[in-house]
Design a protein that fits this description.
heterodimer, A: 401 residues, five-stranded antiparallel β-sheet, 13 helices, 36% helix, B: 190 residues, alpha+beta, two-stranded antiparallel ribbon, ATG101 (chain B), autophagy (chain B), Autophagy-related protein 101 (chain B)
Chain lengths: 401, 190
């Protein structure tokens, strides 16, 4: 008789954890009589069974069962099937008792390799931080803050996708766009007028006229609010040839202020523009943005035509800018707090680092204590010195006035 | 007769000494205890029931099963507490050992006093380590838990070899084999 203990997750995955096997064979021990010996040994076997059940790895799992998974059992007769236990399972021979009618053997085979299960679980549960790139989520319902730029990932996605598919992003923007047009304005587009499609489908003159229409009235109100946009009208106009003037206005607003001074070739789009919340209120300072590593990613790779191709093929679903092909380049998305290194850091890593910061050297006890003591000791002296020089200080102050 | 002897070694941190010892001793005693005998006429007896309960350890990722006998638990805890104090006070290298011996009393004729003949001895050697960081302690928790699992499996395997066990005594001799002093359980004399 075999009892199989398995684990089943809420998603329906199951994994065998243990198999207990009670066997009886015909080998009789002639000398044994049915007396207290046999009973005692059987009860000893039972106690051993109890002890061993607490010792297998599955026990701890079973104590923690609940929402994520449950432990199930199955009883079957016949040959034991150990294949579901994975590699390297261990077997414990709990005990053997000889009886006049046969020999009873109890054994347990348990899985060692629980790693499979745990990683799967981890994948399934949404990560706490980091991998989700919806820091700035624009839900397809009215959001309280109009400042958030458009989310270029579908809301339903769990897994962290650094490079969202353009089609997805376009869809998302299609929905979110109409409900919160002002948000689009808040995010300045990069150069050539259009940062990555998701954000600024408005730019596409070939794009949806409807959307443009909805945006335009509100856009206009914001036109006046964007100073210095006129500075970049030049660069804008290069890319917006052949457009009607209302669209020019729109595009002006979306142009990144760096246009004029940026070192990188103008045909670079960065997703990092999405990272700056409240961009409307960011100082409209060309110099600032020049030095902003987010704006001028030194190592930004350029992605190929798939992006551009799809942009242009889906002209109507937004995203296409009508600009030249090489205006749209996929850049590594650098989430907030990411370093400007070769490996962009995700928020999770940052969060973990931030949780375990190295000890500040100035806070280490001995140095701190010493310097504090020294400081305290030297204070009266310093005060005396300063008092002596009071007149000099006063004179200095007067010269300043 | 020969006395069989088993040795178990564990390396634990200071706080875990008590729990590790208790886990081992309780497991052994679980296997070496029965319910109280109730002798009836004609030389037969019935055995009372003994429950079991799980004990979770606080300092180790481990759970063990023991008999549900508060008296036995108290007795063991007292002894283990003394052992732990002795270990701590000895300072030095943090090595210690404790033995659990099962014996039988053999009545001797006057003037000799009763003999205690051991038939099974379990020795637990403890090595105490000192850990610095919380992370190390966490790892130690898990490691010691795993080690104890192995020890329990060892104990069970030895127990189930069904080697010598004292014969079941008659009523008059029960005290020579079992510890009848406890109210709810009857372990072998130890």
């Amino acid at each position: 008789m075999c009892v199989e203990i398995s684990l089943k997750t809420s998603e329906g995955d199951s994994m065998e954890l243990e198999i207990w096997c009670l066997e009886m064979n015909e080998k009789c021990d002639k000398e044994i009589k049915v007396s207290y010996t046999v009973y005692n040994r059987l009860s000893l076997l039972l106690k051993s069974l109890l002890a061993i059940t607490r010792v297998t790895p599955a026990y701890r799992l079973s104590r923690k069962q609940g929402h994520e998974y449950v432990i199930l059992y199955r009883i079957y007769f016949g040959e034991v099937q150990l294949s579901g236990l994975g590699e390297g399972f261990q077997t414990v021979r709990v005990g053997t008792v000889g009886t006049p009618v046969g020999t009873i053997t109890l054994s347990c085979a348990y899985r060692i390799n629980l790693a499979f299960m745990s990683t799967r679980q981890f994948e399934r549960t949404p990560p706490i931080m980091g991998i989700i790139i919806d820091h700035f989520v624009d839900r397809p319902y009215p959001s309280s803050s109009p400042m958030h730029p458009c989310n270029y990932r579908t809301a339903g996605e769990d897994t962290g996708v650094i490079y969202p598919s353009v089609e997805d992003s376009q869809e998302v923007c299609t929905t979110s766009f109409s409900t919160s047009p002002p948000s689009q304005l808040m995010v300045p587009g990069k150069e050539g007028g259009v940062p990555l499609a998701p954000n600024q489908p408005v730019h596409g003159t070939q794009a949806d006229q409807e959307r443009l229409a909805t945006c335009t009235p509100s856009d206009r109100t914001h036109c006046a609010a964007t100073p210095s946009s006129s500075e970049d009208t030049e660069t804008v106009s290069n890319s917006s040839e052949g457009r009607a003037s209302p669209h020019d206005v729109l595009e002006t607003i979306f142009v990144r202020k760096v246009g004029a001074f940026v070192n990188k070739p103008i045909n670079q789009v960065t997703l990092t523009s999405l990272d700056i919340p409240f961009a409307m209120f960011a100082p409209k300072n060309l110099e600032l943005e020049d030095t902003d590593p987010m704006v001028n990613p030194p190592d930004s790779p350029e992605t190929e035509s798939p992006l551009q191709g799809s942009l242009h093929s889906d002209g109507s679903s937004g995203g296409s800018s009508g600009n030249t092909h090489d205006d749209f380049v996929m850049i590594d998305f650098k989430p907030a707090f990411s370093k400007d290194d070769i490996l962009p850091m995700d928020l999770g890593t940052f969060y973990r680092e931030f949780q375990n910061p190295p000890q500040l050297s100035s806070l280490s006890i001995d140095i701190g204590a010493q310097s504090m003591a020294e400081d305290l000791d030297s204070l009266p002296e310093k005060l005396a010195v300063h008092e002596k020089n009071v007149r000099e200080f006063d004179a200095f102050v007067e010269t300043l006035q | 007769m020969n006395c069989r002897s088993e040795v178990l070694e564990v390396s634990v941190e200071g706080r875990q000494v008590e729990e590790a010892m208790l886990a081992v001793l309780h497991t052994v005693l679980l296997h070496r205890s029965t319910g109280k005998f109730h002798y009836k006429k004609e030389g037969t007896y019935s055995i009372g029931t003994v429950g079991t309960q799980d004990v979770d350890c606080d300092f180790i990722d481990f759970t063990y099963v023991r008999v549900s006998s508060e008296e036995l638990d108290r007795a063991l805890r007292k002894v283990v507490g003394e052992f732990k104090d002795a270990l701590r006070n000895s300072g030095g290298d943090g090595l210690g050992q404790m033995s659990l011996e099962f014996y039988q009393k053999k009545k001797s004729r006057w003037p000799f006093s009763d003999e205690c003949i051991p038939w099974e001895v379990w020795t637990v050697k403890v090595h105490v380590v000192a850990l610095a960081t919380e992370q190390e302690r966490q790892i130690c928790r898990e490691k010691v838990g795993e080690k104890l699992c192995e020890k329990i499996i060892n104990i069970v395997e030895v127990m189930n070899r069904h080697e010598y066990l004292p014969k079941m005594p008659t009523q008059s001799e029960v005290d020579n084999v079992f510890d009848t002093g406890l109210r709810d359980v009857q372990p072998y004399l130890y």
